Amino acid sequence: MLLFYKFYKLLHLFQECIAEKKDWRQCQQEVKEFRGWLGLVTGFTLGVLSATAWRYRGFWRGGAKALPKGNKSRSSARDYKMVLVVRNDLGMGKGKIAAQCCHATLGCYRIASTVAPTMVEEWEVAGQPKIVLRLDTAGEEGLYALLREARTKGVAGTVVRDAGHTQVERGTATVAGLGPCDTTTLDQITGHLKLL
Description:
alpha+beta, 5 strands, Bit1, single chain, five-stranded mixed sheet
């Protein structure tokens, strides 16, 4: 508050000098002091606005609100995850698997953002946990069976089909993404699968 009071006083002195001398160039000392305090007040104000905007960063775009406080505990938020199921029979390299998992994650996120935005918000607050599992049965039918089961339980999901530029044939189903959803429901669907 003292900062703004000092700024106001200097502004008033600057205005009086200009009114008295009719030329701002003759008020150089007041201009220098005013500039310094103007920079300080502007920096302080922008800092406060920036901190406020960061705190409520999701408010304007309809995303996650400020981090939960009070009764809303973080332990409840940890009960959400996304599961990525990779076909093990294709022999994809690590980089290819990573790229396909990224495609699945984005696909699930887009779908879940429209059908279950509250669940997505909880998942984001929890740190967006993702589990990567392997599907040892050959063929893409296993991925679609998981997707069908997920949809019957109301879980968002998608199957990624490769463009065929590198390691697998065009149109090959490579990864199924399920969630984000509560851990219990996803464990009912994918609990029998092993980690990749």
